[in-house]
């Protein structure tokens, strides 16, 4: 290995990050190169000096300031959000819609009234209390054989 | 971060607690002003929060986070100049005794500790100054390599260069540092 090729390996060697075969290659070169050996030792010393710098702690107000800046961010709304003014209004609208559908469905299931029966029904109160009608024979009921029975007088 | 994307606020708090110290330290060593470093770190978290909905885990979160931080730091360094903090020499020297009580030393010990303190502070000042003198990209490479313990691939992605280019960047940075810190390097060699 040449000294120029050592440039890319030297810090990895100082850090202990080289693969085994690379490390052996570097050590073989160092055994015969005083300049690179000196460089390795000085890089190691620099690395040690860098470790002397102390860490600093963020100030006590740091978290609060981050939270304040996050809270000040505009709330993103999706394009359909304007359709939903408030949850309670939405729920009320949904309930009303469902009730409308239910009522509409229920009314469809009721038996249809024939047109010719409507005048009778409109006057039902009168007719139900009309005495002469009470004397009329009972309506004819068809038996199983389909023969009509004569009313009992 | 995926939990933050899903709207979990507690996860954002966890990210904040885990990364605020490394971020502030990295930015402080880049811009050399504590207040500016904290402002920039807040901006980093704000950008993380803003980008949560579009976040895709195509790379490690740390890589993404420090790319934002590095870009902000590089822009800041290029745009402004900062004053270095002066160390006060008038601060009293005290030593914590056992059971937490502070004890004032006698005069001889106080002078020795002041001298030791001065020596240590001078060393730290030299080291900080040497890092500060590095070109911004070399400085960022050294800080990410040394203090964040990121691997070469991650640092290369953060600095948007090839791994080979990064190793070359680091090599030149360390070459400069060993010259700048020659007196201290010589002391390290003797000890």
SSE blueprint:
The complex is a heterodimer of chains A (153) and B (191).
Chain A: H1 3-15, H2 20-32, H3 34-50, H4 62-71, H5 87-109, H6 118-122, H7 124-128, H8 131-134
Helix pairs in contact in A: 1-2, 1-3, 2-3
Chain B: H1 2-5, H2 9-31, H3 34-50, H4 61-79, E1 94-96, E2 102-104, H5 107-133, H6 136-146, H7 152-159, H8 163-180, H9 182-190
Antiparallel strand pairs in B: 1-2
How does this structure look, described?
The complex is a heterodimer of chains A (153) and B (191). Chain A has 153 residues and is mostly helical. Among the domains of chain A are: 3-50, no CATH class; 81-131, no CATH class. Chain A has helices at residues 3-15, 20-32, 34-50, 62-71, 87-109, 118-122, 124-128, 131-134. Residues 144-153 of chain A have low confidence and may be disordered. Chain B has 191 residues and is mostly helical. Chain B has two domains: 2-79, Rna Polymerase Sigma Factor, Chain: A; 108-185, Orthogonal Bundle (Arc Repressor Mutant, subunit A). Chain B contains nine helices and two strands, in the order ααααββααααα. Chain B has helices at 2-5, 9-31, 34-50, 61-79, 107-133, 136-146, 152-159, 163-180, 182-190, and strands at 94-96, 102-104. In chain B, strands 1-2 form a two-stranded antiparallel ribbon. In chain B, a hairpin with a 5-residue loop joins β1 (94-96) and β2 (102-104). The model of chain B is unreliable at 82-105 (pLDDT under 50). Classes of the chains: A mainly alpha (153), B mainly alpha (191). The A-B interface holds A 7-8, 10-12, 17, 39, 41-43, 45-59, 62-63, 65-66, 69-70, 73, 76 and B 12, 16-17, 20-21, 24-25, 28-29, 34, 38, 41-42, 45-46, 49-50, 53, 123-124, 127-128, 131, 142, 145-147, 151-152, 164, 167-168, 170-171, 174, 177-178, 181, 184-185, 188-189.
């Amino acid at each position: 290995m040449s000294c120029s090729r050592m440039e890319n390996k030297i810090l990895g060697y100082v850090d202990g990050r080289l693969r085994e075969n690379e490390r052996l290659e570097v050590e073989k070169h160092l055994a015969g190169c005083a300049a690179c050996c000196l460089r390795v030792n000085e890089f190691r010393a620099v690395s040690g000096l860098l470790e002397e710098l102390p860490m600093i702690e963020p100030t006590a107000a740091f978290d609060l300031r981050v939270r304040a800046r996050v809270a000040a961010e505009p709330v993103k709304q999706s394009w359909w959000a304007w359709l939903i003014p408030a949850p309670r209004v939405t729920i009320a609208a949904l309930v009303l819609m469902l009730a409308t559908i239910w009522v509409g469905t229920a009314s469809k299931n009721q038996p249809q009234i024939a047109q010719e029966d409507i005048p009778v029904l409109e006057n039902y109160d009168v007719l139900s209390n009309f005495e002469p009608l009470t004397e009329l024979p009972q309506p004819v009921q068809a038996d199983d054989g389909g023969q009509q029975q004569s009313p009992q007088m | 971060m995926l939990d933050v994307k899903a709207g979990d606020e507690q996860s954002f708090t966890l990210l904040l607690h885990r990364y605020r110290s490394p971020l502030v330290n990295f930015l402080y060593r880049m811009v050399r002003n504590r207040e500016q470093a904290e402002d920039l770190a807040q901006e980093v978290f704000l950008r993380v929060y803003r980008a949560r909905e579009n976040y895709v885990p195509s790379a490690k979160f740390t890589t993404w986070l420090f790319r934002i931080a590095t870009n902000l730091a590089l822009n800041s360094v290029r745009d402004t100049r900062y004053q270095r903090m002066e160390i006060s020499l008038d601060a009293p020297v005290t030593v914590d005794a056992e059971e937490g009580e502070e004890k004032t030393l006698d005069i001889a010990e106080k002078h020795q500790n002041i001298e030791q303190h001065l020596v240590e502070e001078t060393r730290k000042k030299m080291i900080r100054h040497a890092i500060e003198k590095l070109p911004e990209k070399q400085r960022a490479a050294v800080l990410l390599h040394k203090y964040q313990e990121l691997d070469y691939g991650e640092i290369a992605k953060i600095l948007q260069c090839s791994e080979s280019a990064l190793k070359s960047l680091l090599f030149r940075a360390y070459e400069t540092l060993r010259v700048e810190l020659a007196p201290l390097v010589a002391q390290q060699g003797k000890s």
